[in-house]
Fold:
Amino acid sequence: MGEDLFWAIRGGGASSFGVVLSFKINLVYVLPTVTIFQVQKTLSEGATKLVERWQEVAPKFDDNYFIRILVNPVGKKEQGNRTIQASFESLFLGGREELLSILDKSFPELGVEAKDCAEMSWINSTLYFALAPKLDPTFLLNRYPYANSTFKIKSDFVKEPIPAEGLEKIWKFLLEAVDDPLLMILDPLRGRMDAIEETALPFPHRKGNLYNIQHYLNWPGNEDSQKHLDWMKNLLDSSPQSAAQYPAHGKIMGKQ
Structure:
């Protein structure tokens, strides 16, 4: 049948197809309390070294612990404060003290303290990771779009850590752009993901990959889309080779 057709009929992504005849829902036990934190670091605060270190430790964390990075340019060039900001966001299935103990052993460079952590229910954490932490959980019952803009998302699956000089090349490209506020989301893929067989679910890119980079770019619907699409293509073409193992996978474009 071939691998491509197999994943196509499984409905394995935005660019494939499938017909759902039935489905089952497996419930997963979640602790009453989870812990989240967000720690932001700029280039002057060692963001590049921390991202480089994250590539080594994040894929090896405990199955109950997840930490991603959101990277984007902040500030204004004309004011002399334009820089790259890396936001380290974490979800831990457990309490604050246990999380801090894990970080103290595995990622002390990040400098997370008790005041950075917040304990909450899992349902509230979903809003936090949807970038809408101030909304009430009943918002999830709303079927209307939260935002109204045009966007494009493209994914890279990284097999080897990107060295500091490669990261700096990406930062330079992001800083030079003014009208294209790209958000890069780095999600680790090892740990629990490695234990799931490739044929179990329609997501064939898990094993052997350290993490996934989502390149997320949005713009007002009345602007020229082609200009923004060309800019993203230039970024991906200039990225280090190690960050483009599967450059054609996971393309999504649409309205939000």
